[in-house]
Amino acid sequence: MKIQTKDIAIIAIYGALYVALTVYFQPISYGAIQVRVANVMLATVPLLGIAGVFGQTMGVFVANLYSPELGPIDLLNTLPSLVMSFVIYYVYKRTKNDYTVIGTGIAYSAVLGVTVGCMLNYVVNLPLLATIAYVTFGNIIACVVLGWPVFMVLKRSGVFEWFNRGEKYV
Fold this sequence. Notes:
170 residues, mainly alpha, 68% helix, 0% strand, globular, disordered C terminus
């Protein structure tokens, strides 16, 4: 895979927007009950390709530096975010089925719900199962309930076609 200048620009813009949205909406972006508004952008990862995966990962990494409850340990959640962002990209790339964005968004939410929930339980001593449920549900709201319509509108508009080197939705 050859990284082009536009890929670096997509990574930087995506990451910066993710951080800006997370920090701006800080009261609802961290903690047991959270709806990280920036995760709406996760639905655009299939349209942006691998640059979207890296943009999501960089955004999560930097945004988690600002975590008021977990502190630096929250940086560990960058790894599951990278893996699950790649799964969202890869499954869509292989299937070209729009509905996989819903399924993989739910899977992303479940994985991050478990990892964030375990960390909040360990660090802040919050109840494990309730915290996992709250974080998962909040992620589903952002990634699927809000993200899916964004994905469909952007896909139908064709705005991302030029990102993908002449291929339609890599």
